[in-house]
């Protein structure tokens, strides 16, 4: 495979959550082409499952979608030096007032390899415990929490009623593990 070579790269936008990079590439044939990349920190997602095979879902407003979305707890790896599993526990605590004694990596996936470098680490969290309530702000201030059986969650994914990618991947892998 002929891997294109970057001959020029420039940051055309810098925001709080993402930046946009414009790269000019060549395959060595004298022709150039441009690709734009949304540059972002990686993310984590957590399937928090209790002893009764229920998973903890949250519903929060997601601005790009223009509506609230049911999903598993998740968040950006935006603290320098924090390991993915540490971010997963922190996000679980911040979004659900729950922590886990056991956490296991289920998978890592590229969110959309055609336009962003972001990847997501998906964890299964077990042996859950409540922690003191976290002070939430912005869209997280209105997070709703709900426990749902893994079987019901699987059915919602299968019928397209749960469509968030990290949630779909986490539920399907947990269901397939037959825990």
TrEMBL record:
Where is the Nudix hydrolase domain positioned along the sequence? Answer: 39-170
Q: Which InterPro entries match?
A: NUDIX_hydrolase-like_dom_sf, NUDIX_hydrolase_dom
Give start-end of the signal peptide: none
SUPFAM superfamilies per the UniProt record, alphabetical: Nudix
Provide the alphabetized UniProt keywords: Hydrolase
Top-rank taxon: Bacteria
* Cofactor dependency: Mg(2+)
Picking any one GO molecular function of the record gives: hydrolase activity
Q: Which Pfam families match?
A: NUDIX
BP terms from Gene Ontology: nucleoside phosphate metabolic process; ribose phosphate metabolic process
Gene3D superfamilies recorded for this chain?
Answer: Nucleoside Triphosphate Pyrophosphohydrolase
Q: Does the keyword Cell membrane apply?
A: no
Instruction: Output the Gene Ontology cellular-component terms.
Output: cytosol
Q: What is this protein called?
A: NUDIX hydrolase
Q: Which source organism?
A: Mediterraneibacter catenae
What does the organism's lineage look like at the top?
A: Bacteria, Bacillati, Bacillota, Clostridia, Lachnospirales
């Amino acid at each position: 495979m002929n891997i294109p070579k970057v001959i020029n790269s420039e940051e055309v936008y810098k925001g709080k959550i993402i930046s946009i990079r414009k790269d000019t590439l060549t395959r060595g044939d004298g022709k150039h082409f441009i690709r734009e990349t949304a540059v972002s920190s990686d993310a984590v997602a957590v399937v928090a499952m209790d002893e009764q095979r229920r998973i903890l879902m949250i519903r929060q407003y997601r601005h790009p979608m223009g509506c609230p979305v049911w999903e598993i707890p998740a968040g950006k790896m935006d603290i320098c030096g924090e390991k993915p599993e540490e971010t997963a526990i922190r996000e679980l605590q911040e979004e659900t007032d729950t922590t886990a004694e056991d956490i296991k990596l289920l998978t890592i996936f590229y969110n959309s390899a055609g336009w962003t470098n972001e990847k997501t680490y998906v964890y299964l969290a077990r042996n859950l415990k409540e922690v003191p309530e976290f002070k939430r702000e912005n869209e997280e201030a209105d997070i709703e929490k709900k426990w749902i059986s893994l079987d019901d969650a699987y059915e919602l994914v299968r019928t397209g009623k749960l469509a968030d990618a990290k949630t779909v991947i986490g539920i399907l892998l947990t269901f397939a593990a037959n825990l």
